[in-house]
Amino acid sequence: MIADSQGGAGCGSFSLQRERTAVVVVDVQNDYYSLDGALAPSQDFSVMGASVQPQIDLLSAATDTGVLVVFVRAVGSMGHPTTSATKILERVRSNQSYAFDTPEWVVEGTWGSEVLAEVRAAAPQGVEVVKNRTSGFLNTNLDLVLGAHSISTVVVTGMATDGCVAATVRDAADHGYRVVVVRDAVGSYRPDLHAAALEIFADRYDVRSSAEVIAQLTTHDAPVPQEA
Amino acid sequence: MFVMHGKEVLERLDEFVRPQHTALVLVGMHQAGHLDRSIARSDGDPAGPTASLPRTVRLLEGARDAGVTVVWVRHAPVALGEATSDLGLELPAALAARPGDVEVVTSRVNAFLGSDLLVTLRSRGVRCMVTAGLATEGYVQATADAAVQRDFYSVLAEDCVASFVPGLHTAALAMLRNRCEVHQSTELLSIWAQSAA
User: In this structure, what DSSP letter does residue A12 have?
Assistant: First the structure.
């Protein structure tokens, strides 16, 4: 099944089967989101900041209803064993284009690489998956974790809408998952690219608000799970 | 080129697209068997894709003259009876594989998934992938971005990619400028012509 054949489905009826759904939280880490982190203080935080409470609300609902939550964490540094020449170039280029005032971020083992505390606390049972590239699926155990829980739908939040979220969403569809992107729970330091990504997502995936997803997770007449 | 943390890092276009270590990867360039929403949609406009094809032919010819590896990605479903769509426009006869070209088949939008593309490129010592074809927000974006993630220098031939929905082409291109090296085909052809001389 090619999941992206679902097309843009942001209107009409929307339903989720709790037992087959996972919330995948992409790169909600201190260096990206905390004003004490490495990157956030120097960046346009308007979109990112607004996306935090919807994630907390969504994760609280997921926790209350026993829905699987996966926190994907980006880990890397200039000297990391998985850092290639092209990855160095990518870091140098993004350092220039975003005017980061630091050469390192999400260094393995540091507070900056940990999940933002208030988001982590909203899903204490959440599973953590570590990645060294843009997509949550590339060379990680994300697909194993989802498969082990018989997940067929991934509900995606986090950052960046146009970067790691987009890459994770594309790979999720290519791995056969139905994708739901939570419109107010994703963000980017680039509002223009955030909008561009959402425009593409709306054309090929289900883009919903956190309120719509929460309503589906907490409904008391959820259908009996059926074969996908 | 600069050296950082013990690694040689290429940084200029002429370093990236040296023919000896470069592959031109053409996506969506076949009539039937398409699996992605971006191809032959009922609300699509073929004008942009049609206009891009002569430029893609020139890029292909320049690549061949310079000895750049040419890779054709063909999409085909894995599931029997899976619905596919046709490209919905006529491809020039020149946009066809020749002996020496490589063909890769995939059932996914990202040409690296469900295919031999990665091992094919690695076994040929390819370090740089130039992406061209259709459609920008479908096979092109997924594949060019996947190349970045798999440690290829990823170059997008900006005027040799197109979409059936102009707004989605613009959106995808904006995102790709932040991820890949986006260049006009004339820049690539100029570099390749000098190396073939």
Answer: S
Q: Where are the alpha helices (DSSP H) in chain A?
A: 30-33, 46-50, 52-64, 85-98, 117-120, 142-148, 164-174, 191-204, 210-218
Nearest residue of chain B to residue A176 (CA atoms): B108
CA distance A53 to A70: 17
Instruction: State the nearest Cα–Cα gap between A174 and chain B, in angstroms.
Output: 6
Q: Which helix (H) or strand (E) holds B122?
A: helix B117-123
**What is the tens place of the pLDDT at every residue in B32-91?**
999 899 998 999 999 999 999 999 999 999 999 999 999 999 998 887 778 899 999 999
User: What interface predicted TM-score (ipTM) does this complex get?
Assistant: 0.97
Strands of B135-184 (E only): list them. Answer: 153-162, 181-183
Residues A192, A217 contacting (CB under 8 angstroms): no
B35 touches A6 (CB < 8 A): no
DSSP tag of B138: I
User: In 3-state terms, what secondary structure has residue A28?
Assistant: coil
Residue B40 has a pLDDT of 84
* pTM (whole model) above 0.90: yes
Contact B60, B72 (CB under 8 A): no
Q: What is the pLDDT of residues A194-210, one digit of tens each?
A: 999 999 999 999 999 99
B114 contact residues in A (CB cutoff 8 A): 174
B8 close contact with A: CB closer than 8 A = yes
- A71 neighbors A128 (Cβ within 8 angstroms): yes
- CA distance linking residue B152 with residue B135, whole number of Å: 21
Residue B137 near chain A (CB below 8 Å)? yes
Query: What three-state secondary structure class fits A23?
Result: strand
Of chain A, the percentage scoring pLDDT greater than 70 comes to 91
A183: phi then psi, degrees, rounded to nearest 5: -55, -45
